Fold each of these.
Amino acid sequence: MNNLLTAPAIMTGIGLFFGTVLAVAQRFLRVDEDPRIEATNELLPGTNCGACGQPGCLPFAEKLVAGEVEPGQCTVSTDEAIESIAEFLQVDAGRAEKLVARLRCAGGSRQAHQIAEYRGFEGCRAAAVVSGGGKGCAWGCLGLADCERACTFDAIHMNANGLPQVDTEKCRACPDCVAACPKDLFELVPLNQHLYVQCNIPLAGEAATQLCATACDACGRCAADAAPGLIRMEGNLPVIDLAAGGPPAPEAVYRCPTNAIVWLDREQFQDQETRKARNA
Amino acid sequence: MKSFRRLRRSFEHGVHPAHYKEQTENLPTQRMPFGEHYVMPLGQHIGVPCVPDVDEGEPVRRGQLIARPGGFVSAALHSPVTGTVTRIGDFRGVDGGFTQAIGIEADPFSTQEVDPEAVPDWQSLSLDAFIEAVQMAGIVGMGGAAFPSHVKLSLPEGVAIRHLLINGAECEPFLTNDHRLMLERPAALLEGAEIMRQKLGAVETVIGIEANKPDAIDTIRRHIPDGHPVRVVPLKVKYPQGAEKMMIRSVFGVEVPAGQLPRDVGVNVNNVGTIVAIADYFLRGMPLIERVVTVAGPGVTYPANLVVPLGTPVRDVMEFCGGLRPGSREIVMGGPMMGRPVASLDVPVLKGCSGLLVFAEAPTTERREYPCIRCGRCLEACPYFLNPSRLARMSRARMYDEMKDYHVQDCVECGCCTFACPSNIPIVQLIRTAKDDLAHRKEPGE
């Protein structure tokens, strides 16, 4: 009988002891978390993509509440979501300019000269370590869809020409594809920057054009035709510097012999598709 | 007891590929005639590329210095032919990309003789001067990795070399260039070995040769001069017997710990080709301007062992060997296990190119890949005791950082796992992909 009572008594005693410790801890060691952080986090998309520069959505929410960042730095949220966060926190939305991923190469399977056949397993980085893939151009897109697989937002699809087509609606300018490309061809560019160089080849003249039909041969016509200072030739490629000159105008691309520099209205490689349709 | 000692002459794990050496092992080395164009890439060794020492349009003599080392881990380049420098710029490189190189056009009327350079007497050189001389002779590891040889000679404080180990294993299938070198130039090999041994202060020279080359073992044993502490050790025929850490394990029974070098166990390992190059320079005044290349494989019309001037385009070598047979699909530079396919016939023969193998359709046809059945054969094959199947799966899942915990950096890409895999999983390529990603990782903010 005695034994029967001892065990529950000890358990109750231990329970009471720890209960007291917890109660005291709650009273004296309490940390108040701003309830707005949780609420702001709810309004964020929750993709943890890192495009804002923070490790994830919750750290971004903490910085938002602390006033260190602006809601507009989240490139993934829709405009309405940004507005509601700004309204909730009573701050300025500060919507940043919309960026999209652009590929610095237009040499698909119809343009680039093929010198060998790659027959390893699918993947750009895998092909890059085996004699640099099969394309003659060592700087261009390998076309084996590492970026398509890396994209969080399903915005990249390989087109019939073997180039990644970026859906500008779906692209949220997270750096997934930039990190995935073994040739460093993707860059994040403002959507309304129409003038764009779609080539990465550091060779000039025939050395470049015999590798790819759409290679920049460094003739410099675009630099001559653009507003003074806007385009300069650097390492046999045109570099567009909006700070140094402007405004950009489509005249710069008219005399390009290879379509290496283009005036983009929305997505890349549209002209290649239409040209194909015309030929068909 | 004897059989027990025999067993000891090997390492654990590894594979037994068919050796296919009968195609070229009895063909004496031939000298390839000089062609028209030569390309000398500035980075044909591991380390810093060279700096050109000639200008476009300048005439050069065979054996003349054309590029100086760009740093300590770098070796000089010498012109392989007498002729004129045509261009210094981008040429197609072995890795499929473009690389800085010196283009040379041979003078068709030249006799292509090397004026023996005034080489200082090696015996009177201090160790530092000897190291610099090896660097300026352009000598690199000729087994395939092309690591500058002089770097191995410069030892940090407190490290002493007891054994000079000469690697004549030639464990890669098809290749017979080291075998022929040992048969045809045993005297030069032993002279070079003595130079290296004395300069390193080693007590003994050990030449490790796989037991499938009994003629080479006999020839070298017969040529050992009296009083030279040289020992020839026959080794078990097993791949990768020629990997330096495996060979140390086989010959001395010592394991070189991960992340350490052979010098940490008091051994200096050199390929037979490197040792012959040392003898050629210090005794005959000829820097590294040519090498023995095995041209073999089912796609070659006339297989051969050739002395090829460095910088000769693969196209010229193939034409000299009677061209490619119909149905040839792939040209591999190096051995079939570790060599790399070349993407273009314009690629030149480099210092580290031991073989040019042409494969027809059958052995290179893409074999269908099956799922991993967890049989563990790759684990039993891996001479470094890694877990290749796990590494391959992690690479597929792009868990590159986590692969470091599984010692992916210790992998030497010997290919045993892929050879052993019954499911045809391209394990080495997956590991190589991961290592490439880790090497070129973009840090955030860069």
Amino acid sequence: MSAHTVSMRDALYEEPGPKTRRRTRIVTAVSLVLVAVGVGFVVRQFYITGQLDAKYWSFFLRPSTWLYIAGGFLGTLRVAAVAGAIALVLGILLMLARTSGVKPLAAIARVITDFFRGVPSLLLIYFFYLALPQYGLRISAFWMITLPVALAASGVLAEVFRAGVNAVPRGQTEAALSIGLTPGKTMIKIVLPQALRIVVPSLISQLVVVVKDTTVAYVVSYPDLMQNARVLITNNDALVQVYFVVAILYVLVNFAINQLSIYMARRSGNPIISRATENPT
Amino acid sequence: MDYAGLFAAYGDKYLLAVFETLSMTAVCFAIAMVLSVLITVMRVSPIKPLRLVGDLYVQVFRNIPGVALLIIVAYALPYLKVTLPWKTCVEVAVVLLASAFGSENFMTGINAIGVGQIEAARSIGLTFTQTMTKIVIPQALRSAVLPMTNLLIATMLTTALGSQVPLNPQELTGLVSYITTRETAIGILPFTVSAVVYAGFSVLMGLAGNAIDKRVRVIR
């Protein structure tokens, strides 16, 4: 058997003998029962508290409900797309500054990058929502949620881009310099295009973080999926149901994005660089 | 109001908030580590239903937005007759999120070991327990240092969820929103203090993690 067909999970065990097979079957049966009991308990709790009543669910059959959810989802997408685009540009700029070789510029870029990576996005949102208006700066709800999400992501993206640039073989830079390209041209024409291709799967997986951060939009009352969910709750008096459905929607969307990034990573052979895999400082 | 005024009026609250953020981080991270080991054991066990539950757990909690999870724990569970104190709600949400990522980190660590080493261990006659305790777990732990450092930082940042429920005492983010809504001319001061504390501790944790990693890293 070739090593590729065996996952690490399965390689941990010997091919089981008859005794082990029987034991595995018994434990499997017991665990199945335990899982069923767990699920049953949750369903029972829903049932005895009356949360399964049709009146709490029937409004999901109305198209208007789903139209409203879709509208909120569009709001989420709009924030995520714009914030993602801004973060891309900022991330590249921060990375270019940090790898520029100009000491003060690199130091400033490093401080900015570490700052945005080391501060919760909620705090950044409160900055735009509560602190800026005190200076008379009025921006729309859309930008109040989009800018902090973009800034938070730009710090992480700067590090992802830097990892991408480091992954381009040194020889490429040396060859470019030796044929007379300036360091700037080498970066723009040779290194950056290759680095960008390397980080595509990582960028897609970072989109999940952006989508998650947008959920705080209700703080600034921007009509995203979460905010619209709150309106649905007041209209239909069905808090548990709406929050569960919306949470499942978020999980599905983010799962899809994650799977896409894994697929892209496999197809291109470039690993996913995430906060978890990079160096913390 | 300047920094001196801010500290005179809210200095003690800030101290409490720093303590609150750090203690919640420590508690949540510790519980999340234990939980992620359990989840990982389930995911590598030969028991199909346990594997499925483990995988589902990780996929759900790594993909759910923190705010959505907190709101469900804090505001939806009481309808199902599960009412927790506000602080516990925040901690439950943070632990669920962190343990999913923790388990992913362990799985990556295990996968990085390579099938060949397991086959080698088996061929020299090591039992399953020996293979696990002598080959798999030590390497998985070592290569998990950096990801877990990042997870510790992420856990601290996630405790900012505490600003979404009425905590007493408040943590660093909730305190900023509290002060800024009370003092209408305070500007970015309270924000700056909290941000510097967060960023400072992030950098410290990162440095510590790097130092540990340098000592225990497995060079492949």
